[in-house]
Amino acid sequence: MQEIVCAIDIGTTKVCALMAEVSHDSLGKLTLRLLGEGQASSRGIRRGVVVNVPEATAAVGEAVEACEKEAGRQMLTAYVGIAGSHIATRNSKGVSPVDRKNGVTGHDMQRALEGAGAVALPENQEVIHTIARHWTVDGETEVQQPVGMSAIRLEVDAHIVSGSSTAVNNLVQCVLAHGIDVDELVLEPLAANEAVLKPEERRMGVAVVDMGGGTSDLAIFIDNALCHTIIMDMGGNHLSNDLAYALHCPFETAEDLKLRHGSLLPARIAPDETVWATVFGEKNERSFSRRFICEVLEARAMEMMEKIGEKLEESGYLQRLPAGLVLTGGCSQLPGFTELGREVLNMPVRIGAPTARLPISGLSRTLLSPTYATSVGLLLWGMNEDARAVHRRFEADPLPTALTPSWLGKTASWLKHLLPDRN
Ligand SMILES: Nc1ncnc2c1ncn2[C@@H]1O[C@H](COP(=O)(O)OP(=O)(O)OP(=O)(O)O)[C@@H](O)[C@H]1O
Ligand SMILES: [Mg+2]
Q1: Which ligand is nearest to the CA of 50?
Q2: Structure confidence by residue, pLDDT tens digits, 111-134
Q3: Ligand 1 in contact with 96 (CB < 6 A)?
């Protein structure tokens, strides 16, 4: 069993590298102890996608080096987040015959998943995840753990996540360049959900949106199963860009004003409140109307919420989300997102962040922020992947070549979803 789990979250604005040790608590449940964390400002990444490999590689190197230094050991493999508008998802079905004498075996499940994953993809797209959503055994639907059930036919409803091979390869190169193998590429909203969703939310039906700097990543969970994912090209950088245009100031000034004075509730701000910032290296600071700043931010944030509403509607699951929407990612910290979300979407909205309740000790205060939901979630994903080796109730065959990309270090994503319920 792997004892060290590492995560590299390569975002549009920051790269975060984490290393943790896997152990068991007194009840035998897996836990993590954080050994090191490292960060660097992103370079060569646009809207979640590597657009300049040498620059992005250097940023990854900085974050990894800082993490290794703190942990006092080398990073050898890592779970790496992936996002970007090149990601496509779809649901698919697979079937496998079952030998009634033996009951359902891991091999049958593998064959059914293989069938579901054998979808025709456009050229230059490859499968990143094939995730089992529901199993059906001889017509009995929503079986959670079919192994050992006596039957003649096994069906799986699976969620297929694919991405551009070019984007995948560029991302992987930035990690391999440091001698680090990729355990698995993990779709960022899947990682983020591990860190911020409560088990009861996932059971009832919930949408989670990781609003970062360049992308907002949506995932929907109902009955504990992933139903839908989509990556949207919008994030905190869009808010700062709008502000830069509206105030005729550089992006950096707008970003600074947004972080220090931004809010999505302009009506609560006195019309004559002014704030100050330097512009284009001028000697004296310039004054700005804080209410105007917040009106600009509110207009874009409203558009972002409406887009999320549209995507929820298009997914067909809008009416099945009693637990509402959980917002996370750095951008969700802008005051007023919950109020705006409730008003636009007419559903419960809360901000989600990694908390002390997670089975990870040693998380710094910095990491207990929505900004690090994906980074911390990648560690949890890695830990649960490891659980496969401990809790697996059956032997699965080696992975079929079609599902094993050349860069994949150790395990493949679908295997983790053959596990018993992890909550
Ligand atoms: N306190 C805050 N208030 C408002 N916005 C914030 C705050 N802190 C960070 N942000 C914004 O969050 C964004 C960065 O979020 P995050 O670190 O989650 O993105 P990322 O992972 O680098 O990017 P992505 O996931 O989109 O590729 C930036 O636009 C930043 O301005
Ligand atoms: Mg991110």
Answers
A1: 1
A2: 999 999 998 898 999 999 999 888
A3: no
